[in-house]
Design brief:
single chain; flat; mainly alpha; 8 helices; about 240 residues; two-stranded antiparallel sheet
Length: about 240
């Protein structure tokens, strides 16, 4: 099989899995909507929210399947990952989201995951500014913009290597942390960003399970600065 044929198969496999999941959702929606028993009429009010969520999930899947271009397309994989996160809603737990990550380049997945967290930081920055925390909002926006620039330089243009990327990105977060960690939502986003950035390529996370702390165990370290910044994650609490 040629490389192009293999790539096409990966894309079609993902789209086929989306169609299967969509069919399961549609079947569940139909089952809820067509029940006519007296008991169902009593509990229909409580099922309404679930049906609305199923409708939303089906709409998201349908749009994703129609606009999914390729397994190596950034926007396609970002939408796929966002859909997977949406399906973590407890109401949707009976619908197991299919496994796809083994078919996606790990660098692309890292890029997507970091950008999704930056989207959350952007929304949090806007929220802080609206609530009168202007300095914090500006700092959060600065972190977002600076790391997005680093993302382009590293993941797209290949202008900086992984160690340089991590050192710069973690330094940006470390500088903003004393101000932003005063706000619970920001603190959670920063922890997730540090986790993703610190473990790019060679590290893994061991959840200590104590006081919501994390221990990072990299296989190698490029510099004392990177070591210090990675270790600082354990000092962040939710």
């Amino acid at each position: 099989m040629s490389i192009q044929a293999e790539n096409n198969k990966k894309t079609e496999d993902i789209k086929a899995s989306l169609e299967i999941l969509l069919e399961e959702l549609e079947n569940k929606k139909q089952m809820i909507a067509t029940r006519n028993s007296c008991f169902y009429k009593i509990v229909h009010y409580f099922q309404r929210d679930k049906l609305e969520l199923l409708n939303r999930a089906a709409c998201i899947l349908n749009k994703l399947n129609n606009k999914f271009h390729s397994f190596d397309d950034f926007n396609s994989i970002k939408k796929l990952r966002q859909t997977e996160l949406f399906f973590k809603n407890p109401v949707l737990k009976e619908f197991a989201f299919f496994s796809y990550k083994s078919q996606i380049d790990s660098n692309l997945l890292d890029y997507v995951n970091i950008e999704i967290k930056l989207d959350k930081l952007s929304k949090k920055a806007d929220d802080l500014y609206r609530r009168g925390y202007h300095v914090e909002g500006i700092i959060a926006n600065g972190v977002e913009n600076d790391i997005r620039n680093l993302n382009r330089w590293h993941f797209e243009k290949k202008l900086i290597d992984p160690n340089d990327y991590k050192t710069r990105a973690l330094a940006i977060i470390d500088k903003a942390r004393p101000t932003l960690e005063q706000h619970r939502g920001c603190k959670r986003i920063l922890i997730n960003l540090i986790a993703l950035i610190s473990t790019l390529g060679f590290a893994f996370i061991v959840n200590k399970g104590v006081n919501n702390r994390f221990l990072f165990c990299p296989e190698t370290k490029s510099s004392e600065q990177l070591t210090k910044l990675e270790h600082s994650v354990s000092k962040l609490n939710y």
